[in-house]
Please model this.
Amino acid sequence: MHFLPAFSSLLLCTTFSAAAPFWGIFEQTSLTPYLTATISSSIKSALKKADVIPDVLAHDFKPTFSLLLSYPSTHDHVFLGNVLPRSNVSSKPVFEIHSLSPHPTPTQKNATYTLVLTDPDATSRAEPVKAQMCHWIVTGLKLQPKDNSNAYILDARTTSEEHSSTLSELISYFAPAPPPKTGYHRYIFVLLVPKDSQDDGKGLQKPADRPHWGYGEEGAGVKEWADDNGLKAVGANFFYAQNEKQ
Model:
């Protein structure tokens, strides 16, 4: 498995603090068209190598946002296919979501975003009889302008406090808990936005169940739920985790 794709090398070219090892690229670097295209291409390449495309995302998925997530209690970061200890991801992560465009459109600025977490490897990647498994759905997310740049971000560390009245967890965070002897599971965060720019996201329907996202069909999940709710994927990130008993 390719845990450190080309995107990692690109991001590591910039010096970052220990608390935020790669988030600083959006503060220290001007997002030129070449750089945004390179980041988008590298994200998609990592997703394809791990078969996130097509297991969770469609072949025509194009990343237009980057998802930068970390688990505050352990300072572990989600890094396009790195391995995280199961015990370190027991509580919900904090995150920044950056537009890969240096000048987001009015539609992007005003849209309501939804972040989901899914496991396409339940109960195992070899026998995904319960896949996909829904682990988290949080919506009501809005972009906020970043003070020291022309970037627009969605930052859960501030949004959750300043806009708590607009946030809604359709599915509370269920910590990854891969069963013993089932190998590595992929845990995939997907950022979704309404296809209709006038949709405020308030009418989203909660999945009927966590296994198969309520569809009752092996492999069903984010794509089906997004289509039924008028959403499209615009960003993704993922990590691997396994049970200690193998």
